[in-house]
User: Fold this.
Amino acid sequence: MKRLGKELRGLSLYPYQDGGGCFVFSDTENSRFAMIERLPPHRYIGSFRIITGKYDRVTHSLDTALTPISLGKKYPTGLFVCQDELNEDGERQTYKLIHWDEIVHCFPDSLKIDLLVDPRKIGPHHKLP
Assistant:
């Protein structure tokens, strides 16, 4: 496993219909996001950074949120949200909204888009396959 920082925060889950999925969390020390498989043995999938380009670079993110639900035409494959502590233009912190498929395309052998799970319908009596 690639070395992770000591400060891991902002755990989010992207569930798959088959019970699998991935956890995404902030590696604040390294200004990146790491992913592990949901099911044991919780294999390390990889990590990524949000860099300058389409978005401004994300640094020292403390929070994440992730949904597998289609959010209409703007985010049809789900949405990853992360807090950005320092904006390049000197403005205060913001949140970056990232299309889930942009992240999936970086890890085609390990991640997928699964719009069949609705986490709003998963309750305490929900049984995973």
The chain is about 5% helix and 35% strand.
